[in-house]
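pasting for the record
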Amino acid sequence: MSRRVKTVLIGSGIVGFGLGGLLLLWLWAAGIEIIDPAPKGEGSYKELDRVMAQFRKYYRTKDPAVLPAHYVRLQGESDNPKAPDTWMIYYATASHKMISGGTIVLMDSTGRIDGYFGHHCSKSDGGTVGISSRWHLIWRGGDSSFEKTEDVRQAFDHTFSHQNTEQIAAADRD
């Protein structure tokens, strides 16, 4: 190889590394994430915070427009017509769609919000999640119901990795 070819190759390499470094610096300065923090592919702390904030806002306003699209609502079964309305909602980001996928958030009518990481085997966000426990048939979409709130939580705890729980204070609700 001639000296001229070596010089051109070395110069091209230096220019390539320089441009790559500038691109990475620009992405960092623009706040564009390239890599989602661990656990990769099975949940994201940023996504967990985002969805929990939406659930908090829904609890305070009762405006379903603030919820993520394709959330699932579960209705509690009660034989007592005077019993307060019992419900749960959950939302899961698709594990096969985005790096923040696998983030699952569950909230009940008392304002308790639970966040989980796990595999939501889907290419679209929201919808029914697969639960690997004896409670598997409790929910199948928007018309689903449950008997005990704790049974649903136990099923989620059994299937997914629990990350966070918070309780919205009754005073925070209008």
